[in-house]
Amino acid sequence: MVSSLMSPPWLCLGLISLISISVLVNSSIANTERQVYIVYMGEKPSGEILIESLNFNLLDQVLDGITSRESIVHSYGRSFSGFAAKLTEQERRKLEGFQNTKEHWQQKLESDVIIGMIDTGIWPESKSFSDEGFGPPPKRWKGTCAKNFSCNNKIIGAKYYFSEAKDNLSPRDVLGHGTHTASIAAGGCVANVSLFGLAQGNARGGVPGARLAVYSVCHRYRGCQEVDILKAFDEAIADGVDIISISMGNDHPSEYFIDVIAIGSFHAMKNGILTVASAGNDGPTPGSVTNVAPWLISVAASSIDRRIIDKLVIGDNRTFEASELMLNLYDYTRTNFEGKGSIILCYGDDGGNSALVYKAEGAVMIDESALDFGKQYPLPALDVSVAVGEELLNYINKTRNPVVNIHKSEEIFDENAPVVASFSSRGPNTITPEILKPDISAPGVNIIAAWSPNASVSDSPVDKRSVFYNILSGTSIACPHVSAVAAYVKSIHPSWSSAAILSALVTTATPMNESRHYVAELAYGAGQLNPARAANPGLVYDAIEADYVKMLCNQGYNSTKLKILTGDKTSICSSKNGTGTVRDLNYPSLTLHAGEGKSVNANFSRTVTNVGIAESVYKAEIRTTSKLEVTVNPSVLSFKSLNQKIEFIVTVSGPPMSSPSMVSASLVWSDGKHDVRSPIFVFV
Ligand SMILES: *[C@@H]1O[C@H](CO)[C@@H](O)[C@H](O)[C@H]1NC(C)=O
Ligand SMILES: *[C@@H]1O[C@H](CO)[C@@H](O)[C@H](O)[C@H]1NC(C)=O
Ligand SMILES: *[C@@H]1O[C@H](CO)[C@@H](O)[C@H](O)[C@H]1NC(C)=O
Ligand SMILES: *[C@@H]1O[C@H](CO)[C@@H](O)[C@H](O)[C@H]1NC(C)=O
Ligand SMILES: *[C@@H]1O[C@H](CO)[C@@H](O)[C@H](O)[C@H]1NC(C)=O
Ligand SMILES: *[C@@H]1O[C@H](CO)[C@@H](O)[C@H](O)[C@H]1NC(C)=O
Ligand SMILES: *[C@@H]1O[C@H](CO)[C@@H](O)[C@H](O)[C@H]1NC(C)=O
Ligand SMILES: *[C@@H]1O[C@H](CO)[C@@H](O)[C@H](O)[C@H]1NC(C)=O
Ligand SMILES: *[C@@H]1O[C@H](CO)[C@@H](O)[C@H](O)[C@H]1NC(C)=O
């Protein structure tokens, strides 16, 4: 959350502050009632942001009887910020009112956006959820607050669904997870937080001006029940959230009609709400990705440039670097082992439990699976690689009085970031192989964010330390970063469908370095989330409910299964509409599941909608280092108006591939201002 990687658009000041609105000049042209005014808003905001959309949005709030597109004469924004527009005297005064109330422009937009968090609840007293400066909730909001819980103008709804529990009945978070994810998505600015001095800095969520609605479905002792998750979707949609953020998933990918997150998010999609979900923490095994439905966005976790390491210094002064801390090196299984004054060395990460049982002072655990992210333990402990473990064993064996010192964790700069974490679940999508999942990657390693003081710092029940900010890793943590950006896009484009927002996030993602990743696109999807570009994608790949239904028919779902998912008696698949392929879905990535040993040859039909500049010309560019041959027809798209749709066909061909193997390329539509990039991924 305080990652410096994302610093330009994630400053604590809010994305754009309305420094001053001053109406400079007017000249009487146009009609008698409206005059052209220049509205000057000061400095150009940092980052590539969509001045034009923001201008339209601001204008729409004051105009009476005409649209912003009819009113605006010019948008300024290359060197400074502002616009010229045709306004009546009354509209002009209303605009000036914005200056008088000193409202922050983006905060104003954001404050109309509500993120529904389906998680473990929230700690409402956290500074991250202060409602200072917030007005009342948007009028359309229909949510409510549990009786024994205090909502405010930041947390505008809080409910709990615990079908299997009769105690702890409250949306109050006692596990920490929900507080963490909520503050990443929409926490306010809190100065100088840290975890025992680590990761010190200002904490801030992605959209600090947005509202939160909390749906707690995970009970301390009863876990997260599917029936409760579905209830939370049902309520969140009816309450009027704009984005749903769910950092949960099944242990294994499952068919959509038996997957409550797929079912819930399908209904969300029908209501224009994008669901953002975590890809899972079962990587790097291929095929481990969950939350694979095309009507939700599935998020992988990547590192940030702040790495946290621990040093282990042994008696001969040799220093080992580890991801986190565990050592007097004894075989602790000996019955009369006395741990006091010792650090134990063991195979496997048991969370430091053996050290606790033997009353040791610390632990060194040999575990290769957890070396690229930090973990908290109830005592000084760390994981080391097998190679380091062997050196330590060797040292113990050769030394009469082996000693070791576990140093306090340190921060170092990681120039390789972002890299997808080992634990992040990988594609291919085992339910619909021709839909690339995960879709995108976002920060999810060693992220500091708000925490419940009633939860353990380290996940160990014996750990009684209580903190208000904690460091966590996981795709759970990556997910709310994307939820925030989705909410940001929604604040600027309130009418966009869930597919349009998904497309905007995917096509503006920054490509990642294939050579640093096991299974490439199957690890990161389109690449790393890019908040600065997401609101201004130029073109989007849109889709509606019928498109997804058609895809499901093409995938072989029959009407019985379809109805469970859609809840709609009229959704039926017949032989007529089951003749296409899954690839026909207008998805922003292009994936082909090719046959082993057969030449690659397939067409993808796609339609893009112009959401950038009315009159614009986009040219197709194919980026490939593989043997794939890609052609696009037509390869030039000339738009005359906004919201105009143009169809094209991408033909992908290549030599036969062996099993397993994969190749990729990308299609970029560019008008010189926007690069609309789609990964092309072929695997056997
Ligand atoms: C909250 O209120 C509900 C219903 O009034 C009650 O059953 C529950 O025990 C209360 N929870 C707490 C933590 O006080
Ligand atoms: C930040 O907090 C730490 C303690 O957590 C304190 O030592 C330090 O002085 C604070 N810095 C500022 C600038 O307030
Ligand atoms: C280890 O380092 C310490 C302090 O740096 C030094 O006093 C000591 O002699 C060193 N021991 C060995 C075995 O090199
Ligand atoms: C320790 O040394 C003995 C004898 O040199 C050897 O048999 C044993 O395998 C060694 N153990 C380890 C863990 O290296
Ligand atoms: C939270 O912690 C406080 C203070 O330790 C304690 O009084 C309270 O009972 C705890 N609440 C829960 C729900 O665990
Ligand atoms: C990708 O990573 C490899 C290996 O770390 C490195 O050699 C290469 O320069 C990187 N490529 C880019 C474009 O950064
Ligand atoms: C499939 O075709 C049937 C009959 O032709 C039609 O009623 C139904 O709506 C179609 N379903 C879809 C998903 O297009
Ligand atoms: C759909 O398939 C299921 C089994 O997979 C079957 O029980 C059901 O009758 C089928 N429905 C239709 C309409 O064919
Ligand atoms: C792809 O489309 C072209 C026409 O655009 C057609 O000639 C060709 O046969 C199609 N290829 C496949 C594999 O369907």
Automatic annotation (TrEMBL):
Residues 36-97 form the Inhibitor I9 domain. Residues 1-27 form the signal peptide. The active site is at D119, H177, S476. Keywords: Hydrolase, Protease, Serine protease, Signal. Residues 584-682 form the Subtilisin-like protease fibronectin type-III domain. The keyword Lipid metabolism does not apply. GO terms for biological process: proteolysis. Residues 111-512 form the Peptidase S8/S53 domain. GO terms for molecular function: serine-type endopeptidase activity. Belongs to the peptidase S8 family. This is Cucumisin. It comes from Dioscorea zingiberensis. The lineage of its organism: Eukaryota, Viridiplantae, Streptophyta, Embryophyta, Tracheophyta.
